[in-house]
Every structure is written in structure tokens, then in C-alpha cells.
Amino acid sequence: MRFSNNVASLTPSATLAITARAKKMRAEGQSIIDLSAGEPSFPTPEVAAEGAAASVRAGRTGYPPTPGVPELREGVVRYLGETSAHAPEDPAGVLVSAGVKQGLFNLCFCLFGEGDEVLVPAPFWTSYLAVVELARARPVTVHTDFDDGFALTVERLEAQRTENTRGLFLNSPSNPSGAVMDLAALEEICAWAGEHGIWVLSDEIYRRLHYDGGPAPSVFDVKDRPDHIVSLDGMSKAFSMPGWRIGWSVGPPDLIRKASALQSQTTSAAAGPSQYAAAAALASEGRETIIGDFRRILDRRRRAAHAALQGIPGFDVPLPPGAIYLYGRLGSGDATDSDSAAVAESLLVETGVATVPGEAFGTPGYLRLNFSVEDEMFAEGADRIRAWFGSR
Ligand SMILES: Cc1ncc(COP(=O)(O)O)c(C=O)c1O
User: Fold this and answer.
1) 100 C-alpha to center of ligand 1: Å?
2) 3-state secondary structure at position 183
3) Which helix (H) or strand (E) holds 93?
């Protein structure tokens, strides 16, 4: 079939494809340990479910305003004010979308186009390349190193900057590596971007899943930041509500209005009951307890999963400071075993353990494993992985 140039280089999300395959194998009766998905395994918090139910009972089921219901836009501003040092205070700078994913698409489509380059630090979340390419701009990957915890520096960014550079993705804590940027690095990078008129799109969806202290630093903790900065967050990870499809972009109101116009021509708005669920969770007195409880369980699972994968020759798995993944390097010594796609395929077919190979994140030679699954499931997966490496 012949498709348009718009989707010439489009492929399905690698992670979603692997997860779908694992589900199918399980449905066929195979014993599958799925460590490939990008979602926490907790149920929706009661206060959110009740917020949605109450809105439906009250008949608030018409089209919501395109940029989001006032309760949620105002709730996002309050939440940011309570969790970062220098957050914007105007709800006109908030656009609610069907997840961070739609927010990123809106922003890229509004900001970038033919001839533009967008810097994407690797390893990167697999969808960044696709959204940049859908906008017909060119993603330019920026290398970082396993040995220094995938730290991103101005020097590395500057090495890839050209006169066409228009944007930069940040993602801290990172999917897949869990790396967290400290405030000093964020300040330096924001200042550098401002100097060169580069838009910073800071994907902060894992910000509250930071295990070494409070929330990971946000671009809204940077005091004297340039205007061209947008942060994105949502309900999928810290509130364990990925199926509700709620995310928000927060940035200069002019940009938010344009992105909202785009959204008005595509999805109209994020689903109303989902927005009321999110508003109820953000405003609830128990909000920090909900997140804190999730984080404590995830921290325990993170440590247990990390411990379970130590000492496997050819698989070097560090303890990540944030997010919900272990990102292990394949190979021995300095020699990375770069065909991680083949390793992931063998693991799936021979042992039934689904992981995501580093190719999906721009860094062949790694495997990503979701550590947020139930304890027994991870333990069984780790046993199978250890046995597989032992038999190579
Ligand atoms: C880094 C990152 N950003 C965004 C998303 C998607 O978030 P949402 O469910 O809000 O679209 C994910 C989901 O895996 C992610 O890992």
C-alpha cells in the first residue's frame, strides 16, 4: 500500500510492539515474564476514580474546553508551585492533552519543521525521534556515556549544535537509563539553550519517581531561565494512571495557545472524566501519601531487582537513581555486545522473558527491564536471565 510522505519513516513504537508480542505469546499459553512494558502495576488511586465517577454522575460529559477543564489547569499550576521553586503561575500556560505523548506531538508540530534540527540525548525514549520526524524536522542524537551515568553536558550539546538547531529534549529521570540531572547541570543547559535561541522540551514524567531525595530537579527549579522552555508531566507514572491518558505541557502562553489550536483540530481535548480524575488526585490531601507509598514500594523493588541481576558475567546492571527501569550493558570489559536486539529475541523465545533492546533507545548493546512489576515476577525473570547467560 502506498502512504503519504508524512509517514514515510514512521514505525510503530518499539516498546509497545514488544509488549504486544509478549501479551500474545502469553495468550497462546506460554509462560511469559513481561519486563518490557513502561507502566507501574498499581491500581488507580481511589480519589482519582471517585473524581471521574462524580463528574460523570454530575453530567459533566460534554466536550471539555480544548486546553483542559479549569479545575485541572489550575490544579497543575498549584501542584507545580508546591513541588518546584520557580513555577509559572498562570493557568493560561497549561495545555492538558491525552498524555505527554500528545503534548510532545503538539509542541514539535508547532515549533519545528523542514530544515530544523532537534537535539535528542541518547539513550532516549523511543518516541522522541518519531515525533520530530513527523514534524519533518531532523533529530540529532547526542552521545552520553554509561561510565559517567549518562551525564549530559553543555560540551556534548555544543558539539552537535549547528545554525539549524531549534530544539532540545531533556528527560530526567530518564527512560531508559534512570539517569537524573542535577540542578547545576540543568541551569547550565537552560542558559546555553537560551543563548542560542533553542527550545527546551523537558519531559518530567518520572520526576516524582526519584529515589535519592525529593523530586528530581525540574526546569521550573531554574530561577533565571530563558522563556523558551516547556515542561511536560502527567498521570501515567507517579499516579500509576497510564490508561486515563492525561498529560500536561506548561510553557509560554503564546505557544500553549498555538498548541491548543492544533489540538482543537485533532482530538478536541483530553477525555473529560479523565481530566476530573486527575484534578481530584492533584488536589487531594492524600496526594503526597499516594505518591510516597508508590515510591517506597518501587524503591524496594528497584533495589531487589538490581541485587537479583548482580554478578552475571556479560551483563553489567547499575542501580538507577530514578524512573522504573534497569538499563544493563551487555558485553564484558569495555567490549559492548552490540547486537542487543538478538539477545532480547533469544531471551524472549528461549526463556519467555520480554525485555527491550538498546536499539530502541539509540544505544545498541543494552537491555531495558521494567523493575516495577510484582516482586515474584521480577525474581522469576531474573532467574531465567541468569540461567540464559550461564548457558551461553
Ligand atoms: C519518557 C516518557 N515520556 C512520556 C511517556 C508517555 O507518557 P504518557 O502516558 O503521558 O503519554 C513515557 C511512557 O512510557 C515515557 O517513558
Assistant:
1) 6
2) helix
3) none
